[in-house]
Amino acid sequence: MAAIALILMVVSCLFSQAGFAGETWTFSFGKDQFDRLNSESPVFNLKCLELLKNKKNCRANEALKRASMRQIRENGGNGQINPGLLVCARLQGSVRIGKDSDGNENAFCEFSDESRVSCGSLLRAAIDQDGEKTF
Hints:
There is one protein chain. The protein is of the alpha+beta class. The protein has helices at 2-15, 46-53, 59-66, 70-74, 83-90, 119-129, and strands spanning 25-26, 33-35, 44-45, 94-99, 105-110, 116-118. The strands form two sheets. The protein has a three-stranded antiparallel sheet with strand order 1-2-3. The chain has a three-stranded antiparallel sheet with strand order 4-5-6. A hairpin with an 8-residue loop joins strand 2 and strand 3. It starts with a helix and ends in a 6-residue tail after the last helix. Residues 1-22 have low confidence and may be disordered.
């Protein structure tokens, strides 16, 4: 049963990012805006994206490279918490929930340099880096 709940959460996280490429979302916390470099890239706040475009780095991008579900699974996870939020906490980020102008919510992981990446992007990176198939 826990495996089914985890699969449903993964699917919902991945589908929550649909339609991002080429669009910019504005969320209620600090009017922060989010986008992607391309349709396959993670969803970052514009502050982080600007650094990446200028060949610099941000903590959110560094965290993506370290994302993993292994220790979360080894500790049993609980099947009730969005696994992207658990990855964020494991990477010492702070989960922030933002709302867009239509009232849609999305979870983001914020780091000490105020860079943010969507928790769905963190989860996808963790699954990919652990060598698992998403579906």
